[in-house]
Amino acid sequence: EESVWTNTDRQQVARAARSLSLALNMDEENQAVRDQNVQLSETLSDSLHQVKNPLQALRTYGKLLQQQIANTSADANSSNYVQDAASKQRRLLELADHMM
Q1: Secondary structure of 26-69 in HEC code, one letter for each residue
Q2: Among 35, 40, 46, 47, whose Cα sits 20 to 30 Å from the Cα of 16?
């Protein structure tokens, strides 16, 4: 019984099969990377949220401390320290917001 397929036909089919196999593997790898990126993004977002909550609390405490200093006879350095801390806290919140 004679084969309908020539050697050239078999070689072309084998090359096409290898190309399809490579394309499928590349697609699976790309999907895995996309899945990892989604997971990383969600983790980063959660971590930034965990950082922002204490920063917001520090901002509130700083405002309360500024009011208390303004209502007492505290020295100017105390007020400067609180203002400096508030400035740094605002900067950290801006950075966290920018990352989200």
Answers
A1: HHHHHHHHHHHHHHHHHHHHHHHHHHHHHHHHHHHHHHHHHHHH
A2: 35
* Residue 6 DSSP label: -
Q: Output the CA–CA distances (angstroms, integers) from residue 89 to 48, 62, 73, 85, in the order listed.
A: 14, 9, 25, 6
Question: How many whole angstroms separate alpha carbon 63 and alpha carbon 73?
Answer: 17
End-to-end CA distance of the chain: 69
Residue pLDDT tens, the chain, 100 long: 677 889 999 999 999 999 999 999 999 999 999 999 999 999 998 988 888 888 888 888 888 888 888 788 767 777 788 888 888 888 888 888 887 7
